[in-house]
């Protein structure tokens, strides 16, 4: 009798699917915010609205999934408070910069930031956790640094959008690595910590008569309200993927996001992209490709037992 056929996906396949889903959403995120370009709502109010609706959506999801007890227990530790206070500041800075970039036609700079972000995380891992890097990996980091320097000096301007996005996201990941909370409770705590300032700012703008919300057309209004779900969904998929596949595998999938953002910036948003900027990007892409190849080589190097 032949063995019964197995159906369904194994945990690794599920993890790759979750990772693919999260980075496809992040890669297509510029399209989500596109209808808000040219609307009277500013980036400051858009950030406050995103924090508000993210906090509400996360709180509802926490209630449905019964995740409040782990969060309340973790709040008894002082480390959780200061770690998430800092991570909420970094996350708000990252969101503000990203929203400004999308609504001010800097999608290409945003994509560059998320190309650089994994290399920033690598450097932080080396400095903080003493992670060991091979020569080719160090060369990859150097190539990316050359690309940033090229864009800064020969391009005539500092790529501050890309630098802020990559540095804030790298530091954010470093802090979250040290925090004893899963993605949903952590995001809930971060947004709740940011909520008083965001809600206070929105109330202040309402008193000043400058609040932009109900007067928005129906589609931008729905996008503002839905920003909470749009923020939480890819983070939850990412957390599910991280529990099922290795970080190195997750890192390979990560470049889907900035690649899609770059393609959107070039072909959909029709942003200017001259030869000088292309050379700078090419250095960064070379660094990314070299690091991926070096990491693959290290993972598949025969062990002593195999030789």
Compact summary:
The chain has 307 residues and is an all-alpha fold.
Explain this structure.
The chain is an all-alpha fold. The protein has one domain (11-206, 217-297). The protein is 76% helix and 0% strand. The chain contains 14 helices and no strands. It has helices at residues 11-27, 29-33, 43-65, 68-74, 78-103, 107-129, 135-153, 160-177, 183-208, 218-225, 227-242, 247-254, 256-268, 275-299. It is globular. The two termini are 39 Å apart. The relative contact order is 0.20.
SSE layout:
Elements: H1 11-27, H2 29-33, H3 43-65, H4 68-74, H5 78-103, H6 107-129, H7 135-153, H8 160-177, H9 183-208, H10 218-225, H11 227-242, H12 247-254, H13 256-268, H14 275-299
**How far apart are the first and last residues' alpha carbons, in Å?**
39 Å
β-sheet strand percentage: under 5%
- What is the helical fraction, as a range of percent? over 70%
Q: How many domains?
A: 1
Q: Give a count of the beta strands, DSSP E runs of length 2 or more.
A: 0
Radius of gyration: 21 Å
Order of helices and strands: HHHHHHHHHHHHHH
Number of helices: 14
Overall geometry: globular
Biggest pleated-sheet summary: none
Q: What is the residue-mean pLDDT, rounded to a whole number?
A: 83
Structural category is mainly alpha
**Low-confidence segments:** 1-7, 303-307
């Amino acid at each position: 009798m032949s063995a019964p056929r197995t159906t369904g996906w194994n945990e690794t396949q599920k993890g790759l699917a979750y990772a693919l889903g999260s980075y496809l959403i992040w890669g297509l995120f510029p399209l989500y915010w596109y209808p808000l370009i040219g609307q009277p709502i500013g980036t400051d109010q858009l950030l406050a609205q995103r924090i508000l609706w993210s906090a509400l959506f996360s709180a509802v999801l926490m209630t449905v999934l019964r995740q409040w007890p782990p969060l309340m227990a973790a709040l008894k530790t002082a480390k959780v408070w200061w770690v998430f206070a800092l991570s909420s500041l970094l996350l708000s800075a990252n969101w503000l910069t990203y929203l400004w970039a999308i609504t001010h036609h800097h999608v290409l700079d945003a994509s560059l930031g998320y190309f650089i972000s994994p290399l920033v995380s690598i450097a932080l891992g080396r400095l903080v956790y003493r992670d060991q890097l091979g020569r080719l990996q160090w060369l990859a980091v150097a190539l990316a640094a050359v690309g940033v320097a090229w864009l800064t000096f020969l391009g005539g301007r500092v790529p501050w959008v890309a630098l802020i996005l990559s540095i804030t996201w790298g530091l954010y990941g470093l802090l979250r690595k040290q925090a004893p909370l899963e993605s949903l409770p952590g995001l809930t705590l971060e947004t709740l910590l940011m909520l008083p300032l965001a809600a206070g700012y929105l109330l202040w703008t309402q008193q000043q008569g400058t609040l932009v919300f109900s007067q928005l057309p129906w589609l931008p209004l729905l996008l503002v309200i839905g920003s909470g779900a749009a923020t939480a969904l890819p983070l939850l998929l990412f957390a599910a993927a991280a529990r099922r596949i290795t970080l190195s595998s997750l890192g390979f999938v990560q470049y889907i996001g900035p690649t899609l953002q770059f393609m959107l910036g070039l072909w959909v948003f029709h942003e200017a992209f001259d030869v000088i900027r292309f050379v700078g990007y090419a250095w960064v892409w070379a660094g990314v490709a070299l690091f991926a190849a070096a990491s693959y080589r290290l993972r598949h190097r025969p062990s002593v037992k195999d030789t």
